[in-house]
């Protein structure tokens, strides 16, 4: 769960219920822990020495499962991004106890009170994590970025690296970063704009205590360092996807644009939040005007994420160009193998392709199986995320039973009305017939139950 911070532990009871409801694993089986302990001692023997490169990591300050480290250098007018990715496959063998457990989990599950890792901590936060000042095995993908932000995979190799610093979003300074970090981010962002990309990165939500058992939801806008750091993964993933597509193999992340019904629902949400969205302006164009530091804009960004058709994974198919609409590009997930199962296999395939070698048969076979596994994991993660947000909304509204709120109808289905409150970033259901999208209505809060993470309204006018 990356969209909610609960520094007050106000959600602890409800989160425990959510963990039980979705079967979030509390620990790893003993056989998996034993296998991970043994694997953690495996000495790299297939890696070249790249400890002379000044790699650094950039993550939230508390992160210890570090998937990526980077170094940047000039090559004429181009920039070379050396992106070191944790070499998880060095520690995990196909079919071993660690691998089988990872296939059961699919992803690391994040909640405000902690995570359930994809791999045991001895690997994910130890031997495989690109921690500073220690030798670590990695796969380095070198991506060439031209002056217009075009990307091309220049090479890939297994290497030993030594990160020189663990940098944090909230404290990093320009002097801590490679000299061309800002320029690389600028080029990638400019290329996104030209492609018509519409990545939606809403700020994190925080539960803030008001006293007397009352709470409110606030937004913490993403820091500029977070935005810039995201361009490094984006550049690498786009370059890797292009290389795999050209080699007629791979596993790709695809996502459709919101359909017309979803766009119309978003227009009603914009109205509810007091945002002026010109009728002739597309969703992509309107998104470019949003300021995540504004709570109304931030709430709309969350609504866009909820309204999207949902991302999924697809293996290579002859004659099909996989497309990720928000990225406006062919895209793959390769840069977070400690947190996503699929990335371990994409890394292995890209390493082979970049070196003119055939993709291992077990990797090709995994590409056919992974969409279903990752789809189930994504669905579970999405349900957990929604339940956590519902829990936070119920906590915020607890004690306001009987109060009236202005709302706008954003959608209608067989279950009744979907409404967006005008003054709070809350989306809710309203039972009963009547009304159409765009109607402004008045509703009364009849119940707010944080333990059941439910809120109930009835229409008053």
Question: How would you describe what is shown here?
Answer:
This protein is α+β, with helices and mostly antiparallel strands. It has 2 domains: 4-256 and 310-397, no CATH class; 404-459, Beta Barrel (OB fold (Dihydrolipoamide Acetyltransferase, E2P)). Helix content is 35%, strand content 25%. The protein is built from 12 helices and 19 strands. The strands form 6 sheets. A 5-stranded mixed β-sheet has the order 2-9-8-5-4. A 5-stranded antiparallel β-sheet has the order 17-16-15-18-19. A 3-stranded mixed β-sheet has the order 1-11-12. Helix 7 packs across helix 11 (341-354). The model has no long low-confidence stretch (mean pLDDT 91).
Question: What is the element layout, followed by pairings?
Answer:
Blueprint: E1 4-5, H1 12-21, H2 30-40, E2 48-49, E3 57-59, E4 68-75, E5 78-86, H3 88-91, H4 97-105, E6 109-111, E7 114-116, H5 121-127, E8 135-145, E9 151-162, E10 166-168, H6 181-195, E11 204-211, E12 214-220, H7 224-246, E13 251-254, H8 260-272, H9 283-287, H10 295-307, E14 312-315, H11 341-354, H12 361-397, E15 404-413, E16 416-421, E17 427-430, E18 440-449, E19 454-459
Helix pairs in contact: 1-12, 2-5, 6-7, 7-11, 8-10, 11-12
Kindly list the characteristics that best describe this protein:
2 domains, about 450 residues, OB fold (Dihydrolipoamide Acetyltransferase, E2P), five-stranded antiparallel β-sheet, alpha+beta
Proportion of residues in helical segments: 25-40%
Compute the number of helices: 12
Q: Biggest sheet, strands in spatial order?
A: 2-9-8-5-4
Q: Which structural class best describes the helix and strand composition?
A: alpha+beta
Query: How many β-strand stretches?
Result: 19
Gap between N and C termini, in Å?
Answer: 36 Å
What is the approximate shape?
Answer: globular
Mean pLDDT: 91
Number of domain units: 2
Q: Give a short account of the largest sheet.
A: 5 strands, mixed
What are the low-pLDDT stretches, counting only 5+ consecutive residues below 50?
none
């Amino acid at each position: 769960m990356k969209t909610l911070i609960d520094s007050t532990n106000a959600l602890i009871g409800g989160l425990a219920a959510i963990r039980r409801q979705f079967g979030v694993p509390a620990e790893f089986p003993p056989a998996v822990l034993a296998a991970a302990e043994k694997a953690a001692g495996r000495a790299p023997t297939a890696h070249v020495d790249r400890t002379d490169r000044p790699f650094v990591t950039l993550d939230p300050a508390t992160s210890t499962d570090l998937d990526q480290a980077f170094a940047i250098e000039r090559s004429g007018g181009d920039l070379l991004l050396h992106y070191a990715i944790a070499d998880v496959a060095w520690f995990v063998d196909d079919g071993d106890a660690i691998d089988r457990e990872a296939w059961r989990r699919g992803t690391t599950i994040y909640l405000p009170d902690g995570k359930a890792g994809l791999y045991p901590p001895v690997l994910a936060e130890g031997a495989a994590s690109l921690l500073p000042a220690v030798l670590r095995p990695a796969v380095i993908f070198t991506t060439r970025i031209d002056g217009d932000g075009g990307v091309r995979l220049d090479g890939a190799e297994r290497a030993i690296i030594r990160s020189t610093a663990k940098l944090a979003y909230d404290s990093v300074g320009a002097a801590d970063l490679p000299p061309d970090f800002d320029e690389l981010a600028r080029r990638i962002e400019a290329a996104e704009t030209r492609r018509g990309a519409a990545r939606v990165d809403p700020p994190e939500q925080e539960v803030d205590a008001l006293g007397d058992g009352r709470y409110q939801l606030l937004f913490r806008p993403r820091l500029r360092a977070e935005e810039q750091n995201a361009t490094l993964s984006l550049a690498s993933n786009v370059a890797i996807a292009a290389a795999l597509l050209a080699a007629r193999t791979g596993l790709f992340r695809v996502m459709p644009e919101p359909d017309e019904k979803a766009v119309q629902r978003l227009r009603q949400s914009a109205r509810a939040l007091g945002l002026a969205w010109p009728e002739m302006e597309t969703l992509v164009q309107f998104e470019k005007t949003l300021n995540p530091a504004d709570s109304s804009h931030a709430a709309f960004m969350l609504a866009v994420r909820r309204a999207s058709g949902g991302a999924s994974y697809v293996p290579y198919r002859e004659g099909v160009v996989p497309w990720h609409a928000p990225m406006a590009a062919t895209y793959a997930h390769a840069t977070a193998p400690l947190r996503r199962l699929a990335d371990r296999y994409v890394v292995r395939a890209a390493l082979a392709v970049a070196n003119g070698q055939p993709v291992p048969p077990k990797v090709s076979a995994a590409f056919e199986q992974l969409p279903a596994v990752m789809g189930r994991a994504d669905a579970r993660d999405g349900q957990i995320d929604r339940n956590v947000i519902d829990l936070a909304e119920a906590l915020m509204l607890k004690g306001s039973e009987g109060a009236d709120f202005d709302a706008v109808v954003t959608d209608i289905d067989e279950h009744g009305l979907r409404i967006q409150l005008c003054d709070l970033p809350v989306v809710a259901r309203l039972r009963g017939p009547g009304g159409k999208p765009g109607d402004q209505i008045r509703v009364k809060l009849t119940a707010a139950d944080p333990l059941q993470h439910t809120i109930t309204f009835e229409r008053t006018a």
